[in-house]
Amino acid sequence: MLRMTKDARNIWRDAGLESMRRQDGYIGSEHILLALLSNPNGVGVAVTGIHLEDAREALHRLDDQALASIGISVEAPDSMHRRRQSRMSVTDSVKRTLADARREAERRGAKAIDTRDFMLAIVNADRPNLGLRLLEELGCDPKKIRTALHERAAS
């Protein structure tokens, strides 16, 4: 069974809320990253220095770029009408993120995933991973984030 600390459960809940806010209909690693950045005093902001609104804007840019790459131009992404789903699906990317977060927790001998494990899972992710791509779009170096996370854990 996948156990999480209270803070990690809140991140999972907030990832779902971010997905609903965007009307994505799924939870992906990008939503976990947005949730990690939603707490100004949390680990995500501490190790990246990124504000939630900046990350949201960057994710919209990535959406626009993806659509443009297949010849679709969207003037106002929020005006797109997406089908509302009563149940969220999870992407393969977020399944890998959860599994990697569990391995990070086990590696440090913890019985439950915490927020640090989520962030490590994202920065250590194999591509394609939209959470990792979003960090890079925002100018973050995954190696520096990894180092900052390890330094925080040591102190």
Give a verbal description of the structure:
- With 155 residues, this protein is mainly α.
- It has a single domain, classed as Double Clp-N motif (Orthogonal Bundle), CATH 1.10.1780.
- It contains eight helices and two strands.
- It has helices at 6-22, 29-37, 43-48, 52-69, 92-107, 115-123, 130-137, 142-154, and strands at 26-27, 89-90.
- A two-stranded parallel ribbon has the order 1-2.
- Helix 1 (6-22) crosses helix 2, helix 5 (92-107) crosses helix 6 and helix 6 packs antiparallel against helix 8.
- The longest helix has 18 residues, at 52-69.
- The two termini are 30 Å apart.
- Residues 77-81 have low confidence and may be disordered.
CATH fold field value: Double Clp-N motif
In which range does the helix fraction lie? 55-70%
Which regions are unreliable across 5 or more consecutive residues at pLDDT < 50? 77-81
Query: Total domains, how many?
Result: 1
CATH class: Mainly Alpha
Classified in CATH, the superfamily is Clp, N-terminal domain
Q: How many β strands by DSSP?
A: 2
The largest beta-sheet arranges its strands as 1-2
Quaternary state of the chains = single chain
Mean pLDDT: 90
Instruction: State the secondary-structure class.
Output: mainly alpha
Sheet bearing the most strands, described? Answer: 2 strands, parallel
